[in-house]
Amino acid sequence: MSKIISAIQVKNFSLYYENHKIIEDVSIDIPQNQITAIIGPSGCGKSTFLKSLNRITELEGKVKTEGTIEFFGQNIYGRRVNLNRLRRQISTVYAKPNLFPLSIYDNVAYGVKLIGWNPKTELDKIIQLALKSANIWEEVKNKLHKSALELSYGQQIRLCIARALAVKPQILLIDELCAGLDPLATSKIEELIECLRSELTIIFVSHNIQQVSQLSDFTAVFNYNEHQIGQLSEFSATKKLISHSFEHGHRDYAYTRFR
Ligand SMILES: Nc1ncnc2c1ncn2[C@@H]1O[C@H](COP(=O)(O)OP(=O)(O)OP(=O)(O)O)[C@@H](O)[C@H]1O
C-alpha cells in the first residue's frame, strides 16, 4: 500500500473571533488526494475550521490564532504568506453559489485572468477543461456568453466548482456540500466529487451522514467541549467510523458519541 502524505498538518490550533474562542486545540493531518469529511452538530465550528485552512476567517472578523497549520510544510499563518496565492492553492466553494453577474465564460475566466494574461486560445482551453472537469460542459457549451445567473441552482454550484478548478488548486474546500439541493442536482455534484477524487485533496463539511459514508475516505468529527467550544473529537477512516456506528446501534453515532 502506498504511503499517505499529509497535504495539511494542523497542530494544536485554536481560533478566536474578537477574543471569543470558537475552536480549541485541533490537531489533525489531512491526507493528500483523499476526501475528508467534517461532521458535527450545528455551531461546533466546522465551517470556521474549514475557513481557517486558507485564512478566509480573516475576511469575516477580527481573528486570533494559536498553534500552526502547515500546507506541505509551510506555515500558512506565517508572516510572508501571500494570501491570494494561498487561496488559489486552497480554494473554497460555498454552499450558496456566489457567481458574479457575468457570463458563464467570464465567471470561470475571472480568477485565471487575475493571475496573469493568457492568449485567447489558451484561455478558451483552460475554461473548457475546467467546465469539463466540473461535469457541466455539455450543459453550457452552447451558451458560454449567456449570464451565469440564468443557470439552475445546482448548475451554478457546479460552475463555482469549475471556477475554482480553473486556477488549478491543490485543495478544494466545500462548505455544506449540496445543502438545499434536490436529489438529481445532488447526485450530479456527488458524481463530480467522485471524478475529482484522483486529482485533488477535497475537504467538505456535511450534515448528511449517508453522503459522508459514500464519498469520503476520512472523517473528522467535531463537537463541543464542556465550555461550549468546538473541538475535534475523532478523526478516522470513514469506513471504520461507520462500522463502529452500526456496532453501537447508532445511526447518528458520530453526532451522539461525544456528547
Ligand atoms: N465571523 C464570525 N464572528 C464571530 N463569531 C462567529 C463568526 N463566524 C462564526 N462564528 C461563531 O462561531 C461558532 C461556530 O460557527 P460555525 O459556522 O463554524 O459552526 P458550524 O459547525 O459550521 O455550524 P453549522 O453546522 O450550523 O453551519 C458559532 O457560535 C458562530 O456564531
From TrEMBL:
Residues 8-251 form the ABC transporter domain. Keywords: ATP-binding, Cell inner membrane, Cell membrane, Membrane, Nucleotide-binding, Phosphate transport, Translocase, Transport. One of its GO terms (molecular function) is ATP binding. Signal peptide: none annotated. InterPro entries: AAA+_ATPase, ABC_transporter-like_ATP-bd, P-loop_NTPase, PstB-like. It comes from the Bacteria. PANTHER family: ABC TRANSPORTER I FAMILY MEMBER 17 (PTHR43423), PHOSPHATE IMPORT ATP-BINDING PROTEIN PSTB 3 (PTHR43423:SF9). This is ATP-binding cassette domain-containing protein. It comes from Okeanomitos corallinicola TIOX110.
